[in-house]
Amino acid sequence: MKVLLTGAWTMIATAWRLNPRKTALAVVLMTAGAVAAPLLAAALGWMTREVVAGTPGRAVLAGVAVAVSAVLVLALAHFAHLAYYELSELAELDFDERVIEVSNGSAGIEHHERAEDADTWTVLRQEGRQFRTGLEALLNGVGLVLAVVLTAVLLAVQNPLLLLLPVAAVPPLLAGRVAERVLDRARTATAEPTRAALNLFHLATSARLAGELRVSGVRDELRARHDRLWSRATRGLWRAHLTATWVRAAGQVVFALAYIGGVLLVVRDAIAGRRGVGDVVLVIVLAAQVNQQVATAVALLQDLQRMAGAYRRLTEVTASVTGPATAAPLHAPPARLRDGIDLAGVAFTYPGTDVPVLRDVDLHLPAGATVAIVGENGAGKSTLVKLLCGFYRPSAGRILVDGADLRGMAVDEWRARIAAGFQDFVRYEFTARHVVGLGDLPRLSSEPAVRAALARAGAAGVPDDLPDGLSTPLGKSYADGAELSGGQWQKLALGRAMMREAPLLLVLDEPTSALDPEAEHVLFQRYADHAKRVAGRTGGITVFVSHRFSTVRMADLIIVVGGGRVVETGDHAALTARGGLYAELFALQAKAYS
Ligand SMILES: Nc1ncnc2c1ncn2[C@@H]1O[C@H](COP(=O)(O)OP(=O)(O)OP(=O)(O)O)[C@@H](O)[C@H]1O
Questions:
Q1: C-alpha 300 to ligand 1 mean position (Å)
Q2: ipTM over cut 0.85
Q3: Is 497 exposed, middle or buried (0-12, 13-18, 19+ CB in 10 A)?
C-alpha cells in the first residue's frame, strides 16, 4: 500500500510540476465526469417515480436531468483526455530522462554489469512506456473515489444493508492486487529471455551488421534463437496471466453474489409496498454502477501498481547506482602530474563473477610517458584501462595519482582531466562538429578547437569529404544525414578523444582498429610528439592499447599483460633483448608482415 501511495503521489507531483494548469483541469474534468454517473442513476429513479405518479411537468424536468448527466458522463471524460494526453507525454519524457540520468549518473559502470540490475533496466524501459495508462488511472481514480462515496450515500438512503455492496468490492480489489503481484514477479523472472530476445532482434535488424549477417548466413539460426527466447518469456508470462485471471475471477464472483442479493432486497421491499418502482430502477442502475466502479477500481489499481512498481524500481536502482555517500571529503586531482601513476598490488574481479581478471599488478607509469599495453586477447588490457579511468574500483590494492589514492579522488574531477578513445566508440548522430566537440563540452561548437583536435587525430581531411563540412548532420536519424565508413566514424571518435588538449591521462584503447597499420603508426607518431610537448606542461601520461607492434615499439614504456598479470615491462629495445613474451609476439608479427 505504501508503494502504491508513494507511486501515486510521485505521479501526481510530477504532473503538477510539469504543468499545474493542465493537471488541475484534468482532475476537475475527470472528477465531474465520474460523479455524473451516480447522478444519472438518481435522475433516472426520479424520472421513473414522476412518470409512475403521473406528474408530466416534473417528469420532463427529471428527463432533462437524465439527459444532462448522461451528456456529462460521456463528454467530460473525453475533454479530460485532451488535458492529460499532453501531461502524460511530458511525464513519460520526464521518466525516460530520469532513467537516462540514473544510468549515466554514477561514478562507475558496475550497475551495467550486474545481471539483477540488467533485468531491472529491461523492466524499467518497458514500464516507462506505460506511463500514460498510469496517469490516466490516477486521474480516473480521483473521480472514482468521489463517485463511490456518492453512490454509497444514495444506496444507504434506500437501505443501509446496500452499503455492503461496496464492501463486497474489497475481495475483487484484493484479488486484483494479488494478480498484479503474480504478473510483476513473472515480468521480472522473464526479463532475462526478453532482454536476450530484444538484443537478438536489434542485432538481426541492424543496418550496420546486415553485411556480416548475410555472409555468415546466420539468419535462420538467429530467428530460431529469437523464437526460442520469446517462447520462453511468453510461456512464463502466459502462465502468470492464467493464474492472475483465476484469482481475479474468484474476487469478482464474491461481488456478483452481493449484487444479486442487493437487488433482491429492494425488489422484496417493492413487492411489500415499502418502495416504489423508481427506487428499484435507482438501485438496479446504481448497483450496476458499483459493479462497474469495482471493475474500474481493479483495473486502475493494476495500472497504478505497475507505475508504482516502476517508480520503486527506479528508486532502488538509483540507490544501488549512487551507493552510500562517502563520509571522507574527496580530494581534487593535481593540476599537473609530477611523479606519475602507480598501481600497488592491484587485483580486480568483475562484479558478479569470481575469477580475478587482474592479480598482483605493481606498476609505475611515469609522468609525461607514453605507455603501451600489449598482450593476447582476454589478457586484461582493457580492464587495466578501465581501472585507470575509475570505471571500477580495484578489488584489492591501490591506484595512486602522484601518491594520492584514486579511491579518495572526486571521480568527476578526475574524469574531467582524462581524455579517452575506445574501440567501442559512440556513433553520435549529430553534426560532425558536435560529434567531435563533445569531447570537451565547453568548446562543443568551437570550430578552431574541433579542427585542431581532428588534426591531432590525423583526421583533418574527414570534413572535406562531407557535403556540408563540419555542419553536415551524420547518421540515419536525419533525412539528409551523411553515412560514414567505419574508419571515418572512428577518426571522428579519435578527434573527440583529442579535444581535451592537456589531459593528465589520455587512454586510447584500440581506437584505431579500423585504420590501416601505417595510418595508425603515423597517427601515434604525431600524437606522441604533441603529447611530449603537452607533457612538459602537465606531466600527462598517454596509455594506449594496440595489437600493432609498429605502433607499440614507439612507447617509452611497454607493459606486457598475460593471464591477468604483468609479465614484462620495459621499452622496445629492452624487451626484445630479454627474449620473453614480448619478443615472441613481436617476432610473430614481424614474420607475418615480411
Ligand atoms: N564486463 C565484464 N564482466 C565480466 N568479465 C569481463 C568483462 N569484461 C571483460 N571480462 C573478462 O575479463 C578478461 C579480460 O578482458 P579484457 O577486455 O580486459 O581483455 P583484453 O586484454 O583487453 O582483450 P582484447 O585484446 O581481446 O580486447 C576476459 O577474460 C573477459 O572475459
A1: 47
A2: yes
A3: buried
